[in-house]
Write a structure and sequence with these properties.
Distance between the termini: 27 Å
Largest sheet: 10 strands, mixed
Strand content: 15-25%
Low-confidence stretches: none
Structural class: alpha+beta
Number of domains: 2
Number of strands: 10
Number of helices: 12
Helix content: 40-55%
């Protein structure tokens, strides 16, 4: 017990050494927690998207894409479909949409989407996935219903010359008369919409969309009745097949019913790069923590070979000397870990996002960066991760210290003092 107390007292022999070792151990500890936080944020976002993907069914008019100005693809679902879908058991949410195409630089085009202000903003071709993250300005509110406002994708905004700092002031002119090889013009007046927000989806074509309230869309394009798409949200994955069957029976031959699968691919391709990089960063941080802890404690033992020789000369046993230094190593490691955790809890949420943007962002495709730079990173740490990190750090410290002590105690007291 006396050697344990001596080991703890030795922590305070040199305050500068105490601070230096605590910082050296705390730095990789903080880095590892930051990488784990990034990985958890991406996992949570992906899990949320997967929950939406796996429980959503889409209805379109039979044999039609449902775009109000697309040649031979402009048939819409009748109004009554929405109420029929709402009446099906295990359907928790029904969201109708209207879509129109608008030409950009040939041969490309963008998509204009009308929806209820609080509905999920879904992506063309990957419509079952969302919401894309608003990266500038604000999202819709219930007060925006019927108003001349819009949220624009970052790719569409770049084409239109709209910048993030312009949100709330910039305007976008919707011109229904524009044509394209697959789009016909509609004789309706132009409408100027105030752009209140900009979003990023991580998907190139998904960023070429303009969302507006559905009543505003009807007014602009002159669509009094019908819907392009209707999405039905199931209460669980297990009920999707039964709901699909009931939809077919209830709606009849007017609709094609799609159980979307493409968004699973979208989710994977959007997040896979980030998850792989975050995992690689965690492994590197883990190895760095082990190496730093091992060598810091090894060197601090080796530098005190004279002290070990002196202890042996005055009668301390090899076991007692070992216990003293292992106690000291354990205390140093726990202190450094607490320091790293404290810094992470205080500054992790702010610093981790910037660290991600600087350390991982350059390796990502450009369209992913705005989406993941704005990840909601939490400074909370799961107990299992914290326990694993502490156990590994303590083992590295004990092994490093034990190795240094073993090299010293196998020498005679005189040799140990000369060895330093």
């Amino acid at each position: 017990m006396g050697m344990i107390v001596l080991g703890l007292r030795n922590l305070l022999r040199s305050k500068s050494r105490l601070v230096l070792i605590a910082l050296l151990i705390g730095a990789p500890f903080f880095l590892l927690l930051a990488m784990q936080s990034i990985g958890q944020a991406v996992d949570q976002q992906t899990a949320e998207m997967n929950r939406n993907v796996n429980t959503v069914l889409q209805l379109r008019a039979r044999g039609s894409m449902g775009h109000v100005n697309m040649s031979n693809q402009d048939r819409l679902l009748p109004d009554g479909v929405v109420e029929k879908v709402r009446g099906i058991e295990h359907v928790t949410q029904v969201e109708p949409y209207l879509l129109a195409m608008s030409p950009t630089t040939l041969p490309n085009f963008a998509m204009h989407v009308g929806l209820a202000p609080m509905a999920v903003k879904r992506l063309e071709s990957h419509g079952e996935s969302g919401n894309p993250r608003v990266i500038a300005g604000r999202d819709f509110t219930s007060e925006d219903a019927g108003q001349d406002v819009a949220i624009i994708g970052q790719g569409y905004a770049e084409w239109a010359g709209i910048k993030p700092e312009d949100m709330g002031k910039a305007t976008f002119t919707v011109d229904p008369t524009l044509t394209h090889p697959v789009i016909y013009g509609i004789r309706r007046p132009k409408r100027e919409l105030r752009v209140i927000g900009m979003y990023a989806s991580g998907y190139v074509f998904g960023d070429l969309q303009l969302f507006m309230p559905i009543d505003t869309f009807r007014s602009i394009y002159g669509v009094d009745h019908g819907f392009s798409w209707v999405f039905a949200q199931a209460d669980s994955v297990e009920n999707v097949a039964a709901i699909a069957q009931r939809l077919q029976e209830t709606v009849g031959d007017v609709a094609d019913i799609l159980a979307p699968k493409s968004a699973a691919v979208f989710t994977a391709t959007t997040s896979r790069s980030v998850i792989q990089l975050a995992s690689a960063g965690s492994v590197v941080a883990f190895i760095l923590m082990i190496v730093v802890v091992f060598f810091v404690l090894l060197m601090q033992v080796r530098e005190r070979a004279r002290e070990i020789g002196t202890l042996k000369a005055i009668g301390a046993s090899n076991g007692g000397v070992t216990i003293q230094f292992l106690t000291e190593a354990l205390a140093f490691t726990l202190l450094g870990g607490v320091l790293g955790l404290l810094i992470f809890r205080l500054f992790g949420k702010a610093v981790t996002g910037q660290f991600f943007a600087l350390g991982i962002g350059p390796f990502l495709p450009s369209q992913y960066k705005p989406l993941f730079e704005s990840l909601t990173v939490s400074s909370n740490v799961s107990g299992s991760v914290l326990l694993l990190v502490v156990v590994v750090a303590v083992l590295a410290a004990l092994i490093g210290s034990a190795y240094g002590v073993w090299q010293a105690i196998k020498l005679s007291p005189l040799e140990a003092m000369k060895d330093e």
